């Protein structure tokens, strides 16, 4: 599906210093957040290094930009299409889909939901273990807050489309049941697709089980997934409304488990050059510093969508300076928080101003995006979400070599910050998550209770915090969560046709 540009109304915080369009920010100390379900479940799921990850990656940056376009089925600019053809030629791989034949730069109509839709998968560096079935079958999967399907390589995936992935075999699970008449299909911008049938089965993540979770088994996968030998599929964590199963959409793992979690939320703690983790049902105080700033989420398009306010370019260590450094620049923009996108895609004015501080940086059509000398000292970038300021250190934006296979020999490097021009929203991807601790809270909004409903929470990670400023008062009369640190209890509860329980360790 293509996404129209939609104006989204933001709640306005009537606090001095904020301007119209700023999101309503509620700042809360973590120890004051409320446990919704005493005796409820919580768990930590740590990422594991992908042992088949390939470090030498020519064209990695441009291919990651291409994946954003294909994931959201956006029109490819001519220069990006031409640069991709050159990269695929250098890599000696097949050109995907109908890329050569395009005249207008747009791919065929398809549905969102792809994580990677260009061939030769190099960049899925960390994966998470998921257990499916009875007895449990462990497969390694990607977690994606930008889609809503749990799909997996299966015993029905053709042998020629497998490349060493661990598979889920429904016939070996005593609890697997076919959802009769239901199918799924995800089409990608390059003309390829993945599709299959739908079963329900037990799914366990971090020791918490959901019975009768929809598991979309692949009977066909696109080349990009075949080439990723370590990953067996995807766990979508966006909203149920964009699930791709027909004729009846299915609930995500989080959608089924939420009512049985101690807190109706999960958090993403991703790191640079080392595994991160996701926590469900609790917050680990060691993973962030200071209070958490919550903003409302607009879930109407199925994403974790929010309003951001602008940016600041710190006035230090720049090769060039201008009158914008050190001064807040108001630029309200709609964004989504997406762990399934590796890059940070922001409005063109932010990208231009940022790289304007880096000597010889340029938007180069030959490379398909913004590049800069690899020996450049990149400045920090501060993104404003209402009254919250998120600091991204410059080292995170040095993303990939552009002209050779590795940093040791590269003269030009590809930026992890690229332009979202033409997109319906900005995309706060993994570059952002490596700098910021992010909380995804689900549930139904209650106009009489600020703490309920879909929200995103942001907090600094150790080492990324800004100088201490005056905080807004924390919300009083809420319960501590320090007692919620690991999976608890073993009871069942029926949740939307599925049940969730914590397995004893």
Give a verbal description of the structure.
Residues 491-505 have a biased composition (Basic residues). This is Aspartic peptidase domain-containing protein. This protein has 505 residues and is mainly β. It is 10% helix and 31% strand. It has helices at residues 60-71, 78-91, 223-227, 253-257, 348-355, 394-397, 430-433; strands at 26-28, 43-46, 48-49, 126-132, 137-144, 150-153, 177-187, 193-205, 208-220, 233-236, 245-246, 265-269, 277-280, 289-296, 305-312, 329-337, 344-346, 362-364, 369-373, 381-385, 388-392, 398-401, 412-415, 417-419, 426-428, 436-441, 455-460, 494-495, 498-502. The strands form 4 sheets. The protein has a 7-stranded antiparallel β-sheet, with no helix packed on it. The longest helix has 14 residues, at 78-91. It is globular. The two termini are 42 Å apart.
Secondary-structure map with pairings?
Blueprint: E1 26-28, E2 43-46, E3 48-49, H1 60-71, H2 78-91, E4 126-132, E5 137-144, E6 150-153, E7 177-187, E8 193-205, E9 208-220, H3 223-227, E10 233-236, E11 245-246, H4 253-257, E12 265-269, E13 277-280, E14 289-296, E15 305-312, E16 329-337, E17 344-346, H5 348-355, E18 362-364, E19 369-373, E20 381-385, E21 388-392, H6 394-397, E22 398-401, E23 412-415, E24 417-419, E25 426-428, H7 430-433, E26 436-441, E27 455-460, E28 494-495, E29 498-502
Parallel strand pairs: 5-10, 6-9, 16-25, 17-24
Antiparallel strand pairs: 1-14, 2-13, 3-4, 4-5, 4-8, 6-10, 7-8, 7-11, 8-9, 9-29, 12-13, 12-26, 14-27, 15-16, 15-20, 17-25, 18-19, 19-23, 20-21, 22-23, 26-27, 28-29
Q: What fraction strand?
A: 25-35%
Average the pLDDT over all residues and give the rounded result: 78
The total of helices stands at 7
Rg is 22 Å
Spatial strand order of the main sheet: 1-14-27-26-12-13-2
Low-confidence stretches: 1-20, 100-123, 469-497, 501-505
| Helix-strand category | mainly beta
Number of β-strand runs:
29
Helix content: 10-25%
Terminal Cα span: 42 Å
**What is the 3D shape?**
globular
**Major beta-sheet overview:** 7 strands, antiparallel
Organism: Neurospora intermedia
Keywords: Aspartyl protease, Hydrolase, Protease, Signal
Domain Peptidase A1: 126-459
Biased composition (Basic residues): 491-505
